[in-house]
Amino acid sequence: MIRRKKSFTLTELNKGDRARIIKVGGDRTKRRKIFALGILPGEVVILEQKFPVLLLKAGHSNIALDEGVGKNIIVSKENE
Amino acid sequence: MKKEKRVLLVGRPNVGKSVVFNNITDSYAVVSNYPGTTVEITTGKVRGERCSYQVIDTPGIYSLIPFSAEEEVTLKILFEETPDLIVQVIEAKNIEKMLPLSLLLLEVGFPLILAVNMLDEAWTAGMDLNLSELEKKLNIPVIGTISTRGKGMVSLKKTIEKKLIRGKEKAKAGFKLPYSREVEEPVQEMVKRQNAAKELLKGVIIPGKGTTNSLKEKLNYITMHPLWGIPFLALVLYYGLYKFVGVLGAGVMVDYIDGHIFKGYLLPPLNDLAAFIPYSWLKELLFSQYGFINLGLRYGLAIILPIVTAFFFFFSIIEDSGYLPRLAMLLDTLFKKFGLNGRSVIPLILGLGCGTMAVVAARTLETRRERFIATLLLSIGIPCSAQLGLILAMLSQEPGALVLWGTALLVVLMGTGYFADKVLPGKSPGFYMEIPALRVPNIKALLSKTFARIKWYMKEIIPLFLLVSLVMWAASYVGLLNYLTGLTQPLLQVIGLPPELAPVFILGFFRRDYGAAGLYDLIQGGSLSADQLVVASLTLSLFLPCVAQYIMVIKEQGLSRGIVILFIVLLLAFCAGYFLNLLLSFII
Lengths: 80, 588
Prior knowledge:
The structure holds 2 protein chains of 2 kinds.
Chain A: E1 7-9, E2 18-24, H1 28-36, E3 44-49, E4 54-58, E5 61-65, H2 67-71, E6 73-78
Antiparallel strand pairs in A: 1-6, 2-3, 2-6, 3-4, 4-5
Chain B: E1 5-10, H1 17-24, E2 30-33, E3 40-47, E4 52-57, H2 69-80, E5 85-91, H3 95-108, E6 112-117, H4 119-124, E7 127-129, H5 131-138, E8 142-144, H6 153-166, H7 187-201, E9 205-207, H8 214-224, H9 229-274, H10 280-287, H11 292-320, H12 323-336, H13 345-351, H14 355-361, H15 368-381, H16 385-395, H17 399-423, E10 432-435, H18 443-460, H19 462-478, H20 480-494, H21 502-510, H22 512-524, H23 530-542, H24 547-557, H25 559-587
Parallel strand pairs in B: 1-4, 1-5, 5-6, 6-8
Antiparallel strand pairs in B: 2-3, 3-4, 7-9
Helix pairs in contact in B: 3-7, 9-11, 11-18, 11-19, 13-14, 14-24, 15-17, 15-24, 15-25, 16-22, 17-23, 20-21, 21-22, 22-23, 23-25, 24-25
């Protein structure tokens, strides 16, 4: 039986996917820094690029993250 | 006596703060180090119609939690210096992401004005902003500006004056954050503030039709593309570094200033003057090859200054256009192999201009581990523009030698980085960075930035040149130079180099490029074989950084780490020279 997955890590998304941030994990300082960039629970982001690093579009700003950071960000897919 | 009122400019990086600063201040800006740190703060004065005040431009911040030494300084000024007024510069397009900081500043109790900047970009993106509505909701002045075109500056200045005169609500000393800075602010608070910002902006942001700038979009795409980004980088390096800094700066400008002005007009009368000096020691101190005039003035002003000026200008362009963060993003994966991450691209590229300044810039890196690795790589062999120019000139006659030198240097640098990553405790921190919009740099901001860096160079480096010529003079006077030369000679023989090179190496410590220049003279004399030239160039590139850079390494990293770096550098330079020599003797 295939169960539909509800939450993903950022790295599991495809290029062009829209997603809502659910949770940001990782160590405390790193998390704080991600939050300060505006990547907060509840915000919607678009994954613009996956290589060489992840590139997120949040509103009108672009944020680059590496795989290690992206793995710790849990999102749900948003349909449009 | 009444103290001059102080206005603080704060905001995220890349929101046009310094352009606003340049527009509202009327006297020359003073760049100074914040007490106890090496972080630079720019201060300017405004003589307004009704009062005069000081404006302080601060390093960019994202929140009230410091992430780097620079942000720490901004927060120190905010919380300890009790400014009379805060002007937060906001990028209009991104107001939703930046308003939470405004709300936090208000919560803490700072008197605040918002300057919503780059309105033109917001219009292009299809956003119209009803700022009077926002002003009403927030109950603080909100001014719309387009700083690059000087729009809104008059009303910003008027509002600042009004607020300063009326502002009896002068900042009380000792603001407190609603939470302690060590303890993490609960994420709910941040989410709450973000939602409050969204709520406030309802009715303020009026969506409209944007226009697209297809060239900008294409460039934006290319510069971030994993494949196309590389040829674009090659173009930037070719035109920016090679053509502009190398050919124009190191070639045309140096030829003119050194060949024409110095050799044509300044040196002859000075040399005539030398004939009248009765004391030989004084004559030597002033006029010998390493004397004040030749090494201190001519080298500092006629040769190095034009090169670093061109470099600083080039660097300001890639900085202000928003290209550097894109480069950081492209090179992140590669740099991770060396225990660094994309962020380190900034000090390392700066190192191609002036290693001393690059060591200072390494403090923008987050962890001590990264700062150490970057400083180590800079000390080992990122050649500065002066040295690079000379080595390229020397080896260009032999393309094979140039390729060999470049490859060997890269191997040593990468090997060291790789090894350092494996050996040093701790791990490579994650990479995350805001990628600002690509922009055409504002020429006024470019010039003032370049000018500030040149001023820094004159203040920090030129005195060191003079000091070095004094030391060299004294050392040769008491015979220390000969002693050191004697010590170096046997080591040189081991790596297959002639003993005449010893003084070149000793000189190389005092001035990296000067070492290369000594090498240049030896080639002209024809006393080196092609093999020896490559080995010498490599060893010299890897050898100790110039004395100015080394002093800065100790200042930034501390004495013990400085000594560790010194030993690693000496050992590596020697071993690399040895193996390259061995390799070459096998081939032939």
